[in-house]
Amino acid sequence: MHGSDLHDVGRKANAVSRLAGLLFGIARDERRPRRRHWLDRAQRAGEIACGLLVTILFTGTFAIAGGPASTTAKGALAAALAWSGVCAVVFLRRNLAAREARQRLRQQLLGATSPDAFVDELRHELPPSLVEQVSPHDLHRMRARVRDTEQEELGLAGELQAAGAVLLIVLAGLLPAVLPLWWAADGLHLAYGIAIAELFVLGGFLGHHAGLRPVLLGLCLAAAGALLAGIGWLLQP
Asked: Where are its TM segments located (predicted)?
């Protein structure tokens, strides 16, 4: 088999997998719902990195205000909790919206009375280029599967548990940059240093995941954190 044929086969297999994920809520090469989507490491790493920048900004703001160290510590903790909650709520709303879209599409497909109507419904909801990559045989199998199988979804309780897991993961990534404010004598500088180090590590991970230069992205995020920390340090009384 030539390289172009292998490429076509891989592209069609990927299209079938993406359609299966949209219709049934399953991942590639799986036959069960994706139940641990909250463990998306790249997404959680990005949320923690943004949360660290927010925490540095709020910590510096409270330090500039000139209040006691306990006020700065409480402000940093409040910022970390608030950001973690925002990430959890966004995660929950996105998943509920995606589940509703899958259920609506499934109902529309179940109402298709012919293979042509089935394909038309897919084209209304999905990119035509994606549908055109799937062979008629695969579309026929997919239509039979929609008709003969029940769509497995996490219930509301499961989605809430997943959102809670997201909150805890993000908060756990932010706490190392917050806790020194509570117990260290020079907690502010130590918290800044830990946050900048975390940003470098997370930037390297995200760069590797995205196919970019890990060190360069890590340095960029660390520099952003250092800039915010430096402004707060220079302006504090």
From this structure: 45-65, 77-96, 162-183, 189-208, 215-235
Q: For residue 50, which of 99, 90, 4 has the smallest C-alpha distance?
A: 90
Quote the CA–CA distance of 178 and 75 in Å, as a whole number: 10
Residue at 146: amino acid letter: V
Residue 26, strand partner residues: 33
CB contact at 8 A, 44 and 58 = no
Q: Is 228 exposed, middle or buried (0-12, 13-18, 19+ CB in 10 A)?
A: buried
Q: Would you say residue 28 has pLDDT above 50?
A: no
Buried-exposed string 54-92: b where 16+ CB fall within 10 A, e elsewhere = bbbebbbbbbbeeeeeeebbbbbbebbbebbebbbeebb
Residue 26 three-state SS:
strand
Residue 53 region by backbone torsions, left for phi larger than 0, else alpha for psi between -120 and 50, else beta? alpha
- Cβ atoms of 57 and 228 closer than 8 Å: yes
Q: Write the DSSP symbol of residue 37.
A: G
Output DSSP code: residue 33.
Answer: B
Record the pTM: 0.75
Angle between the N-to-C axes of helices 136-148 and 115-125, in degrees from 0 to 180, rounded to the nearest 10 = 90
For the stretch 110-140, pLDDT in tens is 777 777 777 777 777 666 666 676 666 766 7
Question: Distance between CA 12 and CA 138 in Å, rounded?
Answer: 10
